[in-house]
Specification:
The protein is α/β, with parallel strands linked by helices. It has two domains: about 55 residues, Orthogonal Bundle (Arc Repressor Mutant, subunit A), CATH 1.10.10.10; about 180 residues, Rossmann fold (3-Layer(aba) Sandwich). Helix content is about 40%, strand content about 25%. The strands form four sheets. Strands 6-5-4-9-12-14-15 form a seven-stranded parallel beta sheet, with helices on both faces. A three-stranded antiparallel beta sheet has the order 1-3-2. The relative contact order is 0.12.
Length: about 250
């Protein structure tokens, strides 16, 4: 297709931000959501972008995640709402594991008023946020520091995490495919996430709606391994059926 000027502006915005909701696109372009939806449909049919429930993103790579700074800005309000909803469900005086990701960093910020938490994490940003909090103890896993996002990965990280058994694992994920598999990009990061899942009595996953249908190369696990999924809008098909079949408590944060 030959995009018109409005569609070119739409593509430029998505190329700048990585992904946008339909509401964000409509506000930026000063048109109705219905107009944006039609443009997105046409551009998706031309393989110039990828639709997801409530928005659009760049065609996804299965081998490389987008940059950390860009991820931190994407869907920031949705991540904040999800984080606050999770924080309200976390009791004081419990043990947690928190993995890598901008969504889990939002959860760490939302836990600011809690006391008596014992936290194991491989995320230096999370450790810095919660390590200053009175009455909380943070154990930072050792290993190799990944410069782009200050994540800690490697066999030493996995070995430390396996020493613990915590009440709740708070996890982000890069993508949830339509067959129910949980996926990420970095094999070393995935090994740490799998160790966290094996070391928690309950697994709570935070995923905004852009994560549904997003491909990534490395398999982390299955929907059936998690207990609660927190997201910002009703998941698109076929996920409601998958979540029900896997007996996952899906919490939609309005």
């Amino acid at each position: 297709m030959s995009p018109n000027p409005r569609q070119i502006r739409l593509l430029t915005l998505i190329q700048t931000q990585g992904s946008c909701s339909l509401d964000e696109l409509a506000e930026h372009l000063q048109v109705t959501v219905q107009t944006v939806r039609r443009d997105v449909q046409r551009l998706a049919e031309a393989n110039l972008l990828v639709r997801f429930h409530g928005g659009a993103r760049l065609p996804a790579s299965t081998i490389e995640n987008i940059a950390y700074r860009q991820r931190a800005q994407l869907h920031a309000q949705a991540k904040q709402r999800i984080a606050q909803a999770i924080a309200r469900q976390i009791p004081n005086d419990c043990s947690l594991m928190i993995n890598i990701g901008t969504t889990t960093e939002a959860i760490a910020r939302a836990l600011g008023g809690h006391t008596g938490l014992r936290i194991i994490t491989n995320n230096i940003n999370v450790a810095c946020m919660l390590g200053r909090q009175p009455g909380c103890e943070v154990i930072l896993a050792g290993g190799n520091v990944r410069p782009r996002d200050l994540a800690i990965v490697g066999e030493a990280t996995v070995e430390l995490i396996r020493q613990f058994r915590v009440d709740i694992a708070l996890m982000g994920i890069s993508g949830i495919e339509e067959d129910g598999t949980l996926r990420d990009y970095d094999y070393r990061e995935v090994k740490v996430s799998q160790a966290i899942m094996q070391s928690a009595r309950e697994i709570w996953m935070a995923a905004d709606t852009s994560k549904f249908g997003r491909p990534a190369m490395v398999r982390v696990g299955e929907l059936g391994q998690i207990h609660r999924l927190f997201t910002d809008a009703p998941p698109p098909e076929p996920y409601p059926g998958l979540l029900q079949a896997a007996d996952v408590d899906c919490v939609v944060v309005s």
